[in-house]
Amino acid sequence: MANYSGPVCRFCRREGAKLYLKGERCYTPKCAIERRAFAPGMHGQARKRKTSDYGLQLRAKQKARRVYGLLEKQFRNYFDQASNEPGVTGLNLLRHLELRLDNVIYRLGLGASRKQARQLVTHRHFEVNGKLVNVPSYQVKPGDEVKVKPSNGVFDVALDASKVRPVPSWLSFNADDKSAKILARPERNEMESGVEEQLIVEFYSR
User: Fold this and answer.
1) Is the dihedral of CA 121, 25, 174, 65 positive or negative?
2) For residue 22, what is the DSSP state?
3) pLDDT tens for residues 47-72?
4) Nearest Cα to 35, choosing from 19, 62, 15, 12?
5) What is the pLDDT of residues 25-35, one digit of tens each?
6) Helix 72-83, helix 53-68: angle, nearest 10
7) Which residues contact 126 (CB under 8 A, 6 or more apart)?
8) Measured over all CA atoms, what is the biggest interatomic distance in the chain, rounded to whole angstroms?
9) Following DSSP, what letter does each residue of 168-179 receive, concatenated?
10) Helix H segments across 84-122?
């Protein structure tokens, strides 16, 4: 599947919020939001107009896509999957996104950003339940064990940079051997706070 390879700071500026797409840089004064807190492009500083309901729903969907680093087709597939499951569609959607292997690696602090975590998974650095997994979208389940193969310095650097991000309670992490266990499915208060899942449901339900 294709991946966006252009500048990502423009996404944060477009959404008007930090999406933490560049790891440690996002916590420094070099962050684009700190320096240019307006949308990119020639009309970025133009007077803002009132946003329609559709516009709010679209922005919520785009923001979630960019936070988790997904293209439209894959994000829509997750929504379709979530809507066909019992329970609250918005919560189901966020759980699918949170339980992706690349997101779990990011949450554990083994990747400075989700993009780096995805790259590390693709480069075959992780095992799930003793088996090598190199698919970033692999869905982990409660009880699964994730372990780093014989590591290199990149994990130590990422762990040091991620100290500002506590490991959520649905994950258990052993820093000594860089292994983790999925304890439970995440609850809403343990997931991305900036994602407005109800607006996403409304967008796709039009």
Assistant:
1) negative
2) S
3) 667 779 998 999 899 999 988 989 99
4) 12
5) 665 666 666 66
6) 100
7) 101, 105, 120, 132, 133, 134, 146, 147, 148, 149
8) 55
9) PTTEEEETTTTE
10) 89-98, 101-107, 114-122
